[in-house]
Amino acid sequence: ERVSVVMFYALDPEKELEPAPELVDDEKRPRQYAKMKIKDYLSGFYETFARGTRVIDTVKMSE
User: Fold this and answer.
1) Is 48 exposed, middle or buried (0-12, 13-18, 19+ CB in 10 A)?
2) Which of 12, 34, 61, 63 is 20 to 30 A removed from 26 (C-alpha atoms)?
3) Domain map of the chain by residue range?
4) Taking the complete model, does pTM exceed 0.90, yes or no?
């Protein structure tokens, strides 16, 4: 099982979040989460936090 952790500090909201290329391999270690802009992730974070859920669950890619 793999765990992903996202941390922010004064990032450009227009930049995209995605795993480092060396951590992803389309055959052996495919992406588990969709690429998205920082502003969209933060918006989703606050919405899901208010509902008591996790934003990470909303961006997980189907297998």
Assistant:
1) middle
2) 12
3) 1-63
4) no
